[in-house]
Amino acid sequence: MVSKVSFIFFVLLAITACQQQMEESVQIMQKSSINKYNWNSRLLLINIDNTENELYRSLLTFQIENFCEFEDRKLIGIKFENGINNAYFTPDFVSNQYGMWLVGYDGTVKEFSEDHSFLYQIFDIIDEMPMRQIEMQNNPSTC
Average pLDDT for residues 52-69, to the nearest whole number? Predict the structure, then answer.
């Protein structure tokens, strides 16, 4: 009787382990690279230690207050918490470092900052970029 119970226990344990591994694999398969935005959007990545982080709260407020400017500049914000985001793989430059990165159309990091004052410079930084200059000539801002 004990051997049947042990066998059933080990089978259930194996099934549970396989199920957990499959769920983790599905999560990984569903993640995408931030590179999918290359040549279509600029990114503002933030890596924080928790959602109570002052830098993160500043970014949220800034995004709300400047929604039109984000849209006009094709700027998308993506949050990583302790280097993890459920939708995106973590870029190498984000791992083990907290702060904000401005990523250009070409997928390269244009600026990095650990300080929320960076937010008030970001539009000027973007507006000085050659591709943005062309965008502004062809499509004047409505903001």
Answer: 94
Question: Can you give the length of the chain in residues?
Answer: 143
Instruction: With beta carbons less than 8 A apart as the criterion, state whether 88 and 34 touch.
Output: yes
- Tell me how far CA of residue 137 lies from CA of 28, 66, 124, 143, in angstroms: 41, 21, 16, 15
CA distances from 57 to 9, 73, 94, 119 (A): 47, 21, 19, 12
What are 135's two structure tokens? 């965008």
Q: Are 116 and 54 in contact (CB under 8 A)?
A: yes
What is the pTM assigned to this prediction? 0.77
Neighbours of 34 (CB within 10 A): 20
How far apart are alpha carbons 42 and 114 in whole angstroms?
19
